[in-house]
Amino acid sequence: MSELSDRPTSEEPLYNIGVVARMTGIPVATLRIWERRYGFPASARTAGGHRLYSEREINRLRWVKAQVDAGVQISQAIRSLEHLTRQGRAADLLLPTPTEPTTEKVSILPLRNLRERLVATLLSHDTEKADQILGEAMAVYPIETLVLEVLGPALEDIGEAWMEGRIGIATEHLATNYLRHRLLMWMFSGPPAYLARPTVLACAPGEWHEGSLLILGVLLRRRRWPVAYLGQSLPLADLARLTRDLKPLAIVFVAMTEEPAKALAEWPRWLPEAYRTGRPLIGFGGRIFTAQPEWQGKVPGTFLGATLTEGLTNLERMLRAEAFPSP
């Protein structure tokens, strides 16, 4: 089983059509017309049917727009693009990236400010503005940074606002589900995965807080590990059936409080072969294991770490040793 490069690919579909319109100066309606008439630009689709474009396609769009702005007919510009591509002259399509940032882009550079703006926008129910903020941020920051420094803390801020009574449950649901959808989209549109069995991600029975699990899923996919995301409060009996069929490389559980941790400690009853052989790998994490470290010894398996970054590092070390053993 061979490994792929960890280097991000310019062909990875990441940018939605609104972001592409702002990055290229081509209206959304025009992009749709071009795609319908000429099959250009090429787009991938999310599970919900939304278009996603790669950095490579954005560069191709900028080149075509430059030709059109110079007076070339759109059909001729696209034929020229295809001709250059067939000849392998991709370098001829590269244009200088605009260096004159807009006021909006300058204002998003500090991550803390970006997080505060995103939360404020979501709490005012403006999801279109939130799309714009994140789209422009993606042109500046890697997705991994946005996930760890913006979306994760934003989920915590929104939860605190609800617990303190500053927002209602409807607003909390709207804001949280927006971020949850964004994380799922990034998880399912990650770069090509290693040729390895998937890692199952599941909340312990009775555990409904999935934010850290979603973030872990995105970060694993960004590092090219295939993921089977199961989400909130998973019954262990159902997991046992899926494990027999899926034969995952690893299973990672999250528990935040005592009751889910107690339920999780019973996993060997449902996965006796994993308990006996150590296959698949079993890892766990969550607030309860750092707030009350004695719980680390009550749940069989490997405690992955006190932070998401530490957990990701330890989990990836385990996955690499299992998927790509040294000769």
Characterise the protein shown here:
This protein has 327 residues and is of the alpha/beta class. The protein folds into 3 domains: 15-93, Multidrug-efflux Transporter Regulator, Chain: A, Domain 2 (Orthogonal Bundle); 103-188, Methyltransferase, Methionine Synthase (B12-binding Domains), Chain A, domain 1; 199-323, Cobalamin-binding domain (Rossmann fold), CATH 3.40.50. It contains 16 helices and 8 strands. The strands form 2 sheets. The chain has a 5-stranded parallel sheet with strand order 5-4-6-7-8. Helix 9 (169-188) runs parallel beside helix 10 (211-222). The longest helix is centred in the middle third of the chain and has 21 residues, at 143-163. The radius of gyration is 22 Å and the shape is globular. Mean pLDDT is 87; it is low at 1-9 and 96-108.
